[in-house]
Every structure is written in C-alpha cells, then in structure tokens.
Amino acid sequence: MKTNILKIAAASAIVLIATGCSTMGGGGKDEPAPPANPNFAGEMNKFNAQFPNDKATKYEEISLNYNNAQKLDERGNCHDISKHPVVIILTLDASGKVTRSTTDVEGKKAECFRQAYASAQLPPPPFAPYQKPIRLR
C-alpha cells in the first residue's frame, strides 16, 4: 500500500511540475472538455511501474529541465488551440528518441502535441522503453 501511494505521489508531482511555459489560450470559457483517451490509463500504469527507482526519479528532473530549456512544448503553437490542458506520455527508446506518444484526451490540441513531440529527442533515459509524462497547458 505504501509503495502504491509513493508511486502515485511521484507521478502526480512529476505531472504537475512538468508544465509548459506558454500561456493558456484558445477556446471560450464554455468550451467543452475534450473526450478522454481510454488508452491513457495503461500508459500511466507503465510510468508508475518504473518507480521507486532512483535513476528514474533523477531522469524525471533531467528530462523536465531539458524539455523546458528546449521549449519542446511550443512547437506547433498547440497551447492556443484550447483552454483545456493535455497530459502526454512519451515512450522513449534507449537514445531518448520519442517512439510513441499517448495523450489523456483526444482532440485537435492533443493531436497537435502528439505531432509536436513525434520527432523530439530527449536525453537518454536510464532504461528503455521509458514512459515520460508531461502536463501541458
């Protein structure tokens, strides 16, 4: 039980910390929420299964800093498509190349972020495949 709580806390902290730099835009205040992606929970479970692991915890900080420094989330101007945030989970290979991505929701903004990260290169993770979640505004 304690291990599961730690996994959930680590994932929540990482996802909440990993926010994009752009301001929210797009859509009105009455904009409906996009539909959920039923495949997202399975990908988040894979991320949670990577912990506890000191190397994975350290990599989360390294990859977050890299993402923010490179402004990967600003590719394609996706932030302005909708007011609703998107959580994306990137699957990285041993070199840090994105091989797949899954978003928590479907829609134009989610697709834009999937395309923006499709060719992204992050620092090599401690193991592969590696699941890397990022919360994007």
Automatic annotation (TrEMBL):
Keyword annotations from UniProtKB, A to Z: Signal
Signal recorded as keyword: yes
Signal sequence coordinates: 1-25
Name of the molecule in the record: Energy transducer TonB
Source organism per UniProt: Duganella margarita
